[in-house]
Design brief:
It is a single chain. The protein is of the alpha/beta class. It folds into two domains: 117 residues, Rossmann fold; 124 residues, Rossmann fold, CATH 3.40.50. Helix content is 40%, strand content 18%. The chain contains nine helices and eight strands. Strands 2-1-3-4 form a four-stranded parallel β-sheet, with helices on both faces. The protein has a four-stranded parallel β-sheet with strand order 6-5-7-8. It starts with a strand and ends in a 6-residue tail after the last helix.
Length: 253
């Protein structure tokens, strides 16, 4: 059986492309005997340049024509929410059978692995509240944010807060909660794979609605980590582990 590994990425911001390069180097080194291909998807009004960033359908058609008969598709997403299911539908509609490599926050072990990634940054700030700020979703996977806070508080204590920019879980009162808990300083860590529009528009900046402004309005001194989870050492290994799990499900393994 001839298989290929497809990395399904979401977005092509400069920060994303830098992170993708590091991930590609790790994946290529680990799976030197496999063909590695990338495809891209995005939500929004501006379409992707599919000449430079081929779509999932383009990559599947190319691989089918080349005689590949099975795919492992690793999704570069944190949660199995809307984008995951949208891209799953594209691959299901294609000509090749595939095994999905699940998004990076799928299992309890994944949540613990995120704690491992964050451990040095959190340990270096023992007196600060830590706010992990994700996107949020109306998809039922919104509960993953609550689970992550529960698991990480067992490890790091009550100074660990998980919030979102939009949808669920409701995070509108988090600045007040952090201040009411007695903290004077807070470190905001983007709970995103990479920082792009949501980081610059919703998390940071001088506008009154940004999270840094809202936290500062409650008397909190705010430190911002300016990269997403892909910027922490070890994130590439989390991607590799998910690809390994999918490869183990191939019919000839």
């Amino acid at each position: 059986m001839k298989h290929a590994i497809v990395i399904a990425a979401f977005g092509t911001s400069p920060a994303a492309l830098n992170a993708y390069q590091r991930i590609n180097e790790a994946v290529t080194a680990r799976f030197a005997d496999s063909a590695i291909h990338w495809c891209y998807s995005a939500r929004g009004a501006r379409p992707l340049d599919t000449t430079r960033y081929p779509s999932p359908a383009q990559v599947v058609a190319r691989l089918a024509a080349a005689g590949v008969d099975h795919l492992v598709v690793q999704y570069l997403l944190l949660l199995p929410g809307r984008e995951f299911h949208d891209m799953q539908a594209v691959f299901r509609g294609g000509p090749l059978p595939f095994i999905p490599g699940m998004p990076l926050l799928t299992s309890p072990a994944d949540h613990e692995a995120v704690g491992d990634l964050l451990l040095p940054a959190i340990a270096a700030r023992p007196d600060k509240a830590i706010l992990l700020l994700g996107h949020g979703t109306a998809h039922p996977t919104w509960t993953a944010y609550c689970a992550l806070q529960t698991l990480l508080r067992r490890r790091f204590g009550q100074r660990l807060f998980v919030g979102v920019i939009e949808h669920f879980p409701d995070s509108s009162t988090l600045p007040e909660e952090i201040a009411a808990a007695g903290y004077k300083e807070v470190c905001l860590i983007p709970l995103l794979l990479v920082t792009a529009t949501h980081f610059t528009r919703d998390m940071v900046g001088d506008g009154p609605a940004t999270w840094t402004s809202r936290l500062a309005a409650r008397g909190l001194a705010v430190e911002v980590v300016e990269h997403g989870l892909a910027g922490f050492p070890g994130c590439e290994e989390l991607v590799v582990s998910h690809i390994n799990q999918a490869l183990d499900q191939l019919p000839d393994r």
